[in-house]
Amino acid sequence: MTLRVSRGGTKSLLAGVCVAAAMPPWGWWPLAFIGVAWFHLTSREAGSRRGAFGHGAVFCLGWLLPATAWMWFISAPGWIVACILFAVLHGLAESIVWRTERHVVLQPLAHAAVEALRFSWPFGGVPLASLAISQAQSPVVPLIRVVGAIGVTWFVWQAATYLATRKRRFVAMSLAALVAVAVAPTGGAVDGSPRVRVAVVQGGGPQGTRAINTDPRIVHLRHLDMMKGITAADKVDIVVWPENVVDVADFATSTEFVEIADEAKRLGVPVLVGVTEDAGPGRFTNKQVVIGADGALGDGYDKVRRVPFGEYIPMRGVLRAIGAPVDQVPTDAVSGTSKALLDVPLGGPTISGDDVETVRVATAISWEVFFAGRVNEGVEEGATLVINPTNGSSYRGTILQTQQLASSRLRAIESARYVVQAAPTGFSGFISAKGDIVSRTRIGEAAVVIADVPLRTGRTWYSRLGDAPVIIALLGAFALVAYRSRKRGGEPTRR
To answer: Is residue 333 classed as helix, strand or coil in its secondary structure?
Structure first.
């Protein structure tokens, strides 16, 4: 099919821009409902299946091109190709439901199914700039602990179409969501309500720098200098460093390990630090490791979900042959295989006076926080706290950083756990189990931010069930409604 932008297509494009404006860093979340409702009304004007395809495709381009513009700094061609790919998928979804009797119901189901596909394909999934992320600050967001991000995507789309066409159904749907949120479990404090005092170290520095153009020793020293400002009087229990701020051939034998171990011993607390190590020719590992209060090397977790075109180049040989700049990522990360979990032995009683020998920490490194399953994997293993060590220093602006912070808020609500985010140039901060930002650094500043974090237990419905029931329900509902629906030759029904 070819893409033709008519007057109606221009409206769909602008509707997509409305959805983009609902995303962080702009964050005008009601515009997601307005944009989807506008698209729904405009798409019904399509005079042919090809026209319906065009409406769906340009809507997606208006949505994703601005909201994922940070991808330009990884690969400008990759950004364009990714947006076109997802535009084609949304175009196909709209062409499938064109002229159906139950367009008002089938359209949200079809496009939510495309978003579910985007969460897992290609390259393991690209769950960026989703409708759920746009709702991180809205009254809708508590629903994520019931149905997850895919369910919230469907809810926003369906609520918007009802808001445009069937306001009574919109009210009924909203009331049903309120009831579900009210009765759904929210987790609770660990017995005795222990708290740990966590210090996040942000070394600061300029944005828009790539690892291949940066001296890793300078990055390490920035963080080491900031940690030296922490004193015994601060009474911290755990110190968290960001992702890959130590880049060495072998961490266990490095000067950097000795320097961090000395600081851990000085304070008598464990340090969780992001390390990049060599793993053979053209390969490296990206891990978060624990240095104990005694200075000994402890548990470690290797990142499982790698960033395509950022940490590895898919089809490197093919892309090199056609002249793509694959040397910007000269080596490929090795994917880890372990659970997203760190066991962190404490050096003594916590700030709350409790004798907690070990804190189990769900660990989602950077990109992994966009995938709910990575956090939930640690929660399933008994984690009482979540950390997201990350590194967004390669990108200019704040599109990625604010969307990642929004994603951390979603993970906090889904898991009913506090999330600690640590980044070398920001944003670093603490997110409560309700998704509220307790504290946050500024971009580029050097800072140590400290907060007392309650350890939490319990599981939400989403944590126990995951995405599978939601996806099955979406596909099942689509099949049932499509089966019962009859195609018409005239305008789509108003039902």
So the answer is: strand
Joined together, the tokens standing for residue 250 give 């072998």
Distance CA 433, CA 299 (A): 25
pLDDT of residue 450: 98
- Asked whether the predicted pLDDT for residue 487 surpasses 80, the reply is no
Residue intervals of the chain classified under CATH 3.60.110.10 are 188-459
Q: How far apart are CA 324 and CA 389, in angstroms?
A: 30
Measured distance CA(63)–CA(19) in Å, rounded: 6
> What does each C-alpha distance from 2 to 7, 96, 399 come to in angstroms?
16, 16, 31
Instruction: Indicate if the pLDDT at residue 438 is higher than 60.
Output: yes
CATH class of 188-459: alpha beta
Give the C-alpha separation, 484 to 443, whole Å: 53
Q: Which residue from 326, 366, 320, 362 is spatially nearest to 344, judged by alpha carbons?
A: 362
Torsion sign (Cα): 468, 470, 473, 479: negative
Per the CB < 8 A criterion, the answer to whether 133 and 403 are in contact is yes
Structure-token pair, residue 307: 């960033």
The CA angle 491-92-128, to the nearest 5 degrees, is 120
Question: pTM for the full model?
Answer: 0.93
Whether 397 has a pLDDT exceeding 60, the answer reads yes
How far apart CA 460 and CA 172 sit, in angstroms, is 24
Mean pLDDT over residues 344-368, rounded? 97
How far apart, in whole angstroms, are the C-alpha atoms of residue 436 and residue 412? 9
- In 3D space, the residue among 98, 94, 95, 134 whose CA is nearest the CA of residue 112 turns out to be 94
SS3 12: helix
* Chain segment 107-145, per-residue pLDDT in tens: 999 999 999 999 999 989 999 999 999 999 999 999 999
Query: What is the rounded CA–CA span in Å between residue 234 and residue 231?
Result: 6
pLDDT value at 332 more than 70: yes
| All residues at 6 or more sequence positions from 222 whose CB lies less than 8 Å from its CB, including other chains | 203, 204, 205, 424, 446
